[in-house]
Amino acid sequence: MKPQTSPRLTHLALHVADMDACIEFYRYYCGMVICHERSTAQQRIVWLAEPGREREFIFVLMDGGRDLNLPKDDYRHFGFALASRAAVDDVSRRADERGELVWPPREEPYPVGYYCGLRDPNGNYVEFSYGQPLGPGAPQ
Predict the structure, then answer these.
(1) I want to staple 79 with a disulfide (CB 3.0 to 4.6 A). Which of 26, 50, 117, 127 is the partner?
(2) What is the pLDDT of residues 31-72, one digit of tens each?
(3) Contact of 107 with 114, CB cutoff 8 Å
């Protein structure tokens, strides 16, 4: 096996205002699970991962953050690939019912594909897509 010679992205760390709401959001929409949790006198820290990827990539949530208040035309986001257009539509419908939908489903030329965008409880935008070159639905 060839040794790794370049850095590998392993995690994103986010300060959040409402830890429990953020955990629930990422569990509900992304199926993420808590794979580590600790608290100090000053801070609570929670690691979230997709099941089976706990040693590949995680979100580190730390309390003490502030809402980001991003405008709707700000396209910074976290991206999650889904297995079908119907799955994107389902996420969009559920998010709309909960008041978390920011970008309704739309189709854009490759490599963007079909996607929608949600707002997590801390103001981060989260994209759910189908047909991008990464993850499920990637063109062969």
Answers:
(1) 127
(2) 999 999 999 999 999 999 999 999 999 999 999 999 999 998
(3) yes
- The rounded Cα 129 to chain-centroid distance in angstroms is 11
Alpha-carbon distance of 121 to 84, in angstroms, equals 25
- Contacts within 8 Å (CB) and 24+ apart, 40-47: 44/19, 46/19, 47/11
Please give the pLDDT value at position 72: 81
CA distance 38 to 76: 29
Q: What is the mean pLDDT of the chain?
A: 94
What type of residue sits at position 27?
Answer: R
Residue type, 127: E
- Listing DSSP states for 36-101 in one string gives EEEE-SS-EEEEEE-TT-TTT-EEEEEES-------TT----EEEE-S-HHHHHHHHHHHHHTT-E
Task: Provide the pLDDT for residue 122.
Answer: 95
Alpha helices in 15-84 (DSSP H): 19-30
